[in-house]
Design brief:
Elements (H helix, E strand, L loop, with lengths): L1 H39 L7 H23 L14 H33 L12 H4 L1 H19 L10 H8 L1
Helix pairs in contact: 1-2, 1-5, 2-5, 3-5
Length: 172
């Protein structure tokens, strides 16, 4: 079961990477087209700003899960680094469980929000706002999957630096 979940998580990660790359490419083209038409041709396109905004929302939520997998989130670990190994491990586990509770709450309330705004449409594109708001539960569900994967693969993260003095000596 564990291997099946990890394979599922890896597949989700791969799919999310492809989607993020595609969304970023489309967003770059939309922003470039908006700037080109507005400032070069003097005839602005009405849809580029709205498309870019919704793509940015999706990128933010999807890329957060990817950053979690890669250890790319900012962490202040100066205090926890000084804990004994057992206390550090339990503190990290407890923090991850709290994050999981938060993420599940956001997935549930985000899904309810998507259902609530489904009949509303965007001003320019005239598509359902549910498409934009769906980034919340989908992204948080992906983050939750990545968090469980992290808990399985790395229950006790390695120390960031041996000590502060070592880190300072490297920079000087």
């Amino acid at each position: 079961m564990r291997q099946l979940f990890l394979a599922f998580s890896d597949a989700i990660d791969y799919l999310a990477r492809l989607i993020v790359i595609g969304l970023m490419a489309v967003m770059c083209v939309a922003v470039f087209a908006g700037v080109f038409f507005r400032y070069i041709l003097g005839d602005p396109l009405s849809w580029t700003e709205e498309v870019s905004r919704y793509l940015m929302i999706w990128l933010g939520f999807l890329a957060t899960g990817l950053a979690l997998r890669e250890g790319g989130h900012v962490a202040i670990d100066a205090v926890i680094e000084r804990f004994p190994r057992a206390l550090r491990r339990w503190t990290i586990f407890f923090t991850r469980v709290l994050c999981m509770v938060f993420l599940i709450t956001v997935v549930i309330t985000g899904a309810m929000l998507v259902l609530r705004v489904a009949t509303q449409t965007t001003p320019v594109l005239d598509i359902s706002l549910a498409w934009a708001y769906a980034a919340i539960p989908v992204g948080c569900l992906m983050i939750a999957i990545e968090l469980v994967t992290l808990m399985i693969r790395q229950p006790d993260p390695p120390r960031a630096a041996q000590d502060v003095e070592t880190a300072l000596n490297i920079q000087s």
